[in-house]
Amino acid sequence: MDFEGIKRHKSSITTVSWVASVAIIFGGVVPYIPQYRDIRRTQNAEGFSTYVCLVLLVANILRILFRLGRYFETPLLWQSIIMIITMLIMLNLCTSVRMATELNTKRRSFTDFDWNYFWSWSRFVDYLQCVLAFMVLAAYVTYLLLDSVLFVESLGFLAVFTEAMLGTPQLYCNYRNKSTEGMRFVCEYKVIVLPQTHTIC
């Protein structure tokens, strides 16, 4: 193969690698775009379980912390960051819709520390406070135990296991509402994202 052929071959490999990286980074959020648009259009978030956001936030925060102890590919790191941002956007929308349709309900907040209303708060800022509190606590524990191989591997396992349980909250929401609305997006996420995330452990 001449020099120009080798150059074209390397360029093709670089292009394919770049496209694959972009697909990994943004592929996981694609199923939530029509979900977001549908909730915004109908002003009805009952078909989407906010516990899906909780599962993905916990899983991706743990995955980022896992990288501190065991390196994995940068596209997977960016995938986690993009997914965290996406889930916060979804939570913001769902909270706004719920506040607009449930004007007479008593306001609940994170600082009430009422376990009966965990993750059923009235304002987006309460969800943000909870996520930040979890991030700080998990980061502190990780900092203390980063030299423990057992802890690091357990962190990776918890990240993957939590993400694998993604369908559970949506399944319960569908059972309660007697509907399969929202489940398609969970299935699409599992097909697109989970095969790549399993490679980190």
From TrEMBL:
It comes from the Eukaryota. Keywords: Membrane, Repeat, Transmembrane, Transmembrane helix. It comes from Sinocyclocheilus anshuiensis. It is found in: Membrane. The keyword Glycoprotein does not apply. The keyword Membrane applies. The chain crosses the membrane at residues 12-33, 45-66, 78-100, 124-143. It is a multi-pass membrane protein. Its main location: membrane. GO terms for biological process: phospholipid translocation; retrograde transport, endosome to Golgi. The gene is LOC107698648. Pfam families: PQ-loop. GO terms for cellular component: cytosol; endosome; membrane; trans-Golgi network. InterPro entries: PQ-loop_rpt, SLC66/Scramblase_ANY1. This is Solute carrier family 66 member 2.
